[in-house]
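Appendix B. Worked example

We walk through a single record from start to finish. Start with the input: the chain for Alpha-ketoglutarate-dependent dioxygenase AlkB, Microlunatus aurantiacus, length 185.
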Amino acid sequence: MAAFHQWAAGPVPIRSATVRGHPMSVRTVCLGWHWQPYRYSRHAGDVNGARVLPLPEWLIELGRRALASVGWPDAAAYRPDTALINFYDAGAKMGLHQDKDEVSPDPVVSLSVGEACVFRFGNTENRNRPHTDVELRSGDLFVFGGPARLAYHGVTTIIPGTAPDDCGLTDGRINITLRATGLRD
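Next comes the structure step. The output line below is what the pipeline stores for this chain.
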């Protein structure tokens, strides 16, 4: 949580991205690459033009350990180059979407901290069924890659009052997603 508070303070502060003319209810801070809807850049042109902070080596290592724990082949070679850190307050949601702004097929590693949420994991074809709702709690890791890398997914509900006393958040949820963009400067 200490690292999150540092990242959220800047040089590129946490913000709500605008998608199709509407601000998202989720607030995001980025490391490595700055995500704007449908593209990445090293500088936050939609915020203040500053260069985003680098992705720390300890987060890269966390991603490798997560992949190794689920038996991912060649987990030691995983080299994410960006992290999107999303903050959800009690009313925040994220609609079903595909993570297809990256050119790399490497898996997405997601870590939850704080209040639980209902995470909807769908199919790769459309936003319709079939999908599975999974309750993600503080400390849970969720990895999706291979054929599921482009599955539609989102957060339908934050479950208030579920943050563990020792997680550093009294309310809300932080989600850290590690990705390998495959992009070059």
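Two observations about the output. Helices lie at 2-9, 57-69. The mean pLDDT is 93.
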